[in-house]
Amino acid sequence: MSHTTRRAFAASLSAVALAAAGAFVPSAFAADTIKVGVLHSLSGTMAISETVLKDTVLMTIDEINAKGGVLGKKLEPVVVDPASNWPLFAEKAKQLISQDKVAVVFGCWTSVSRKSVLPVFEETNSLLFYPVQYEGEELSKNVFYTGAAPNQQAIPAVEYLMSKDGGSAKRFVLLGTDYVYPRTTNKILRAFLKSKGVAEADIMEEYTPFGHSDYQTIIAKIKKFSSEGKKTAVVSTINGDSNVPFYKELGNQGLKATDVPVVAFSVGEEELRGVDTKPLVGHLAAWNYFMSIKNPTNTAFIKQWSDYAKAKGIAGHKDKPLTNDPMEATYIGIHMWAQAVEKAKSTDTDKVIAAMAGQTVKAPGGFTSTMDKENHHLHKPVFIGEIKADGQFNVVWKTPGPVVADPWSDYIAENKGKKNVPEKK
Length: 425
Fold this sequence. Notes:
Distance between the termini: 54 Å
Helix content: 25-40%
Largest sheet: 7 strands, mixed
Shape: globular
Number of helices: 12
Structural class: alpha/beta
Strand order of the largest sheet: 7-6-8-9-10-14-15
Order of helices and strands: HHEHEHEHEEHEHEHEHEEHHHEEEEE
Oligomer: single chain
């Protein structure tokens, strides 16, 4: 019997003896690992977007573990399914923090799920990494926002639509799912459009519930609105599986990008998987990453995902592996957290927060991604892509480099004087 085997055998005998004596024995496995929470919807209306983020977390944990883990310990994922049920997100967050004793949580997609869990993370002084574009108007010491703020996605996209290259749009349809992210983003966009001289009569705003599937009437209204003389564009903040019937109806009613371009903020390669994209060619999405971006870091990222998806038999991806923006944001966030833990030599929340300031990761999007020293947001490039017939995106516009996030939008009057630094509670 080797020295290692003897030691493990002796440890297991001690555990058995303690258990027999009625003592509590913590898992020997857990003592040698750092637990990481994964809080994404694996069922319900948001599973179409979130399931792949759970798999991205697991892939990145495997990558880090293969290189020796963090602080000499392996990362141990704890996966839960909040099932697109917003109050359940808070319950699952409590479970991960209080029962499972995770050091950090990677999760949420919708802002309503993030708002649901926020008090849990603040009350327990725990850490959440949130990987999706959002409406801003929030800054918590306990959250790192690795997706885009409005000035890193929504505002540049609408500026592009108004430009000559983007079609010189004069009328706008703000179409979203009925919850906090679309409504707040559209409040910001309304103020922005008015600052650019767009009249109230030239802005149409429509909302549909989560899981909505009948877009016939709304597309007909958009066609009527666009026929009233001025170049019209649609800004879509539809989230989840409603995107499939929305884009199908767009195709059915022949609303082509040359007539009324749609720019989407929550539609990427994954959401287009179940749609015939041929009628959608030329419609747009604004993100901080596209799979089609060419650079060695992205080539390696796509290969890593492709190999992982095939090895794990991930539904859809083992045959047609796709990467997207929230996957990149998830990947960046996990690597930054691991680097911050190594720098802090601890998983203590306050020490990790301090160590996160200024962390950098070479991002698949082609730039070095930097965590702002103060505002808990990444500096991110902005790309606008046109949908191609194969469901990929052709980048038609991009910023010269990364844009610094502005969580409190300058277009909302009550934000005047607000500091982009989380309050200490």
